[in-house]
Write a structure and sequence with these properties.
It is a single chain. By secondary structure, the protein is an alpha+beta fold. The protein has one domain: 2-Layer Sandwich (Ribosomal Protein S5, domain 2). It contains eight helices and twelve strands. Strands 1, 2, 3, 4, 5, 6, 7 and 12 form an eight-stranded mixed sheet that branches. The longest helix has 21 residues, at 225-245. It is globular. The two termini are 23 Å apart. The relative contact order is 0.18. Bound molecules: (3R)-3-hydroxy-3-methyl-5-(phosphonooxy)pentanoic acid (PMV). Pfam families: MDD_C, MVD-like_N. This is diphosphomevalonate decarboxylase. Keywords: ATP-binding, Lipid biosynthesis, Lipid metabolism, Lyase, Nucleotide-binding. It comes from Flavobacterium sediminis.
Amino acid sequence: GSVEKATFSWSAPSNIALVKYWGKKETGDQIPANPSISFTLSNCKTITSLNVSAKQNPSDDFSFDLLFEGKPKEDFKPKIQKFLERIEGYCPYLKSYHLEIDTQNTFPHSSGIASSASGMAALAVNIMSLEKMLKPEISKDYFNQKASFLARLGSGSACRSVHGKVVIWGKHQDTTESSDLFGVEFSEVHENFKNYQDTILLVDKGEKQVSSTVGHNLMHNHPYASQRFDQAQYNLTAIKQILSQGDLERFVELVESEALTLHAMMMTSMPYFILMKPNTLEIINKIWRFRNETQVPVCFTLDAGANVHVLYPESVKEKVLQFIQNELVVYCQNGQYICDQIGNGSQLI
Ligand code: PMV
């Protein structure tokens, strides 16, 4: 088919890894060194519209405009340009169009919440909408799988933001069901994890000290790299069992260990980084004390920064929110935190 003009609009959520992706193969195409698994979030998302119009004078260059929150955003353009170049071979139709990308996030920019996962996923599903218009015969499964594949080429963890709930990305030694090329939903999840909560405490909203590109590269020649990659394989086996059995106690232990290991990798690389802030540690200690005193199965995880994700079952929501308000909010920058929970993945608007 051919299309002269069309507009699509999608939202794509952020995700929070339980077993972390940290390190990639040296193949240059975003192949992870170890498998990872994440909860897809619900409220923290990017909403992107893509306006396409057939070019009058087809050229060899990509032609696109970028609007962020309604205003032209020049400094995001190189990242998009690089993304389009990377996916060009898979989406040869892109150069026949002028693209107008209009994007916004539901969470504050520079909140320290990475928008690359939701942003790249939202762009990828929009591009697949164009492909679907050109090739109406493609199936829903193909659409989603290729959207995740394209999102991965934008930002690795973005491939986990197309599908909902719990998503695995990366070849796992135990099974042939997961892939290095795209995320797949893990469906055997126990009721205990239904509507699992993630309250994100904004400890430090400053610019990222280490970009994830630099971060992943720190795993090349890292003294503990091979042990870490083995451990992630092992932890993925364990967490699949934990999620399907509803074992909250082992969940807490594994998830916190993964978060601290991610930071341990950064502390033991060359150059080395400490991405936690004093308030990050204050929060961790408070969570440990609260858990010891109440037996409430609440735990933390971290991404490559100082913010803390507080994870807990929906059944203890009231108790935990009260604890957060009474004891943890004082450690947040301007008292800011975001309440989120497991969600459904990318949605057509
Ligand atoms: O997708 P990237 O390249 O921004 O890497 C994400 C890395 C972590 O957030 C630290 C871990 C993960 O698995 O999401």
